[in-house]
Amino acid sequence: MIITIASGKGGVGKTTTSANLGVALSKIGKKTLIVDGDISMANLGLIFNFEKNRPSLHDVLSGECDVKDAIYKHKTGAHILPTSLSIEGYKRSDLDLFPEVISDVADDYDYVIIDAPAGLNRDMAIHLAIADKVLIVLTPELFSIADGIKIKQSSEMAGTSILGAVLNRTGRDFGEMGIDEIEMIVHEKVISTIPEDENIRNATLKRMSVIEYSPKSPSSKAYMELALKIVGSYVDMNKIEEEVYNKSFIDKVKRIFLRFKNK
Questions:
Q1: Cβ neighbours of residue 123 closer than 8 Å, sequence gap 6 or more
Q2: What is the DSSP letter of 155?
Q3: Helix (H, G, I), strand (E, B) or coil at 50
Q4: 192, 230 in Cβ contact below 8 A?
Q5: Helices in 107-241 by DSSP H: which ranges?
Q6: What whole-number distance in Å separates Cα of residue 27 and Cα of residue 20?
Q7: What string of DSSP letters covers 206-227?
Q8: 137-177 residue pLDDT tens
Q9: What does the alpha-carbon distance between residue 251 and residue 138 come to, in Å, rounded to a whole number?
Q10: Which helix (H) or strand (E) holds 20?
């Protein structure tokens, strides 16, 4: 399944969600490719600490290398197709090749997570059209909700259905919009809430996913729960006893996933 992670505005945590959802899916046994689809303002590679001189999506889109030569298996188990920080690489890229590039490798993975550029533009239209599902990232603020509606409308125009909405950075403000209110406005289900968590910022500074940096943190649990929902094996991570995390958080999640899968 190809899932495009989209948002109407920048700064809502779209790239963080793409990275951590991809890592979470790989941790529960799903072969996952995370693609930096923002070829003009690349950031995904920073989270996974990729070196500048490696082949990237820019090289693939300029015809300089095969897509499989630009995909790397990260220590988390996730596969990454990064975009370089090079302006020259961006200038050489032909975005029209992007759908073909993704189609060439999609069958090799259970999930392809595309971190799309923010906003509504030609780049975003391509990312929405190629996806099987679109996951909208919102924050509980009016501007973000309004922009999310535009993403939904654009997805529908592209013929791609919405998987749901992820409500990010919750719990920051006493007066923030509630889930029921947001669902009523957007007319989509909020399938996950990611709490405001300083571990995310700390993980980014260390060039890591928060699941690597602090697997017991509230945001890590939320991303693992989101991954389980997406594969159809829901479990409330808050109900798992704390001692489980002290022993082996990831092993426990895998066992829970397999239990649901075999039912």
A1: 37, 38, 39, 40, 95, 116, 117
A2: H
A3: coil
A4: no
A5: 122-130, 142-158, 179-186, 198-205, 210-213, 218-230
A6: 10
A7: TTS-HHHH-TTSHHHHHHHHHH
A8: 999 999 999 999 999 999 999 999 999 999 999 988 767 89
A9: 30
A10: helix 14-27
